[in-house]
Sequence to fold (491 residues):
Amino acid sequence: MPMPQRPLPRPAENTEHYDTREDNPVRRTREAPVSTFSIDVDTGSYANVRRMLRDGYRPPADAVRVEEMLNYFDYGHPAPASREVPFKVTTELAPAPWNPARQLLMVGIKGYDVDKRELPPANLVLLVDTSGSMDDPAKLPLLKRAFAQLVPQLRAMDRVSIVAYAGHAGLVLAPTPGDRHGEILAALEQLQAAGSTNGGEGLRLAYAMARQGYVEGGVNRILLATDGDFNVGITDRNALLTLVADQRRTGIALSTLGFGSGNYNDAMAERLADAGNGQHLYIDTLDEARRVLVRQMQATLLTIANDVKVQVEFNPAVVAEYRLVGYENRILREEDFANDRVDAGDIGAGHEVTALYEITLAGSGAERLPPLRYGDTAPAAAANSGELAHLRLRYKLPGQDESRLIETPVLRSSLRPQASESLRFAAAVAGYADLLRGGKYVDRWTWDDVERTARGALGEDRFGLRHEFVQLVDSARSVTTADMARGQPEA
Fold:
């Protein structure tokens, strides 16, 4: 399906806000053999960057989060055999396409799936920003159409509330059985944009409604739809994060759905979702709303594992260097891994999580870092090991406070001469994100290489997302080339 092009000028005044982030550095394994991070199932960055490329301008580098680009796509990671362990962890190791002297290690996590008809009762609160800044076709009107996609999926056992906030918060729809589709749609339709943005008051009322309709053992979640521009009431981000973090301990999750452009506060929306044990999504089209609220409804709503942490210990005798691709704001300290009081990401039913490491084998000559004058040699015992790395993963079952541990070695013998279709496509997505951020880690790879690699790994592509990605590569090439021609900085 051809991707619609909307060549629009960059807004005259753009106050969009993104958290500053620096790419993960290359690490010497002898100095720092252990890498620890929280998983991330957000995809908001991908859709938001797509919106900018379609509008004809280059995204700011801080808007490009590689892990959210990777996790937008499914890679066919194997599912668990039973629900006793809620997900399966797999790895793949193959040469990096931008430099075959280095390798890519792909870590794949796949959660067990649940049929929509088998979802437990859901207690949903739709928290809608109806401030004046939402008076735009890509904001409140799209938001109403997006939530309207969810309504037909709801059942009599479900409960739905709608809270709106502008200068003040108000209850639009008290907890209502989910099969009263007409009432819910009518309440959505009456929403109008006007006034300032008291998000703090809206959150408090939404949590009150969520507590009123709380379902023991069910899904209890607030869906906050906003452009993130909180400007009255509690406006301090830390205060809002504290409010949300306190409430998540009651078993009520918060997910955020971002809308619009020009004043979009991505940093606020992403951090609120992190604090609320939820997912940060961005809705740029009705198709995207259908993807996250209909096709992936169970993954968006039902959590099957909490506080999922990954730790990889590299063998310094085999691996000289490594770099985690993305997850910069999900990095954890080594001691956080076994500390069950440290919060981490959650996995929904059927979710896939993908992470990439670029590694350089000892003696390959492909090291990025210069040799140390007084560097120690690796111990001989480790050199004789067939293990390249050891992967550990911790998670909690919902409602439990004590984590469980999964461990698996990554063997040097698992190195494939050629990457699978899934890893090739993941590499193309990682290269796309890196080039948008300035192209520091893909050597001499170009947009043509990204496109060629993606086209060679399209697979079945049931919903056309990979084909759409190839079109986005072409758009990204155009806007970055235009930036260079104007003499603007790379990112």
Summary: Residues 465-485 form the longest helix (21 residues). Confidence is low (pLDDT under 50) at residues 1-11.
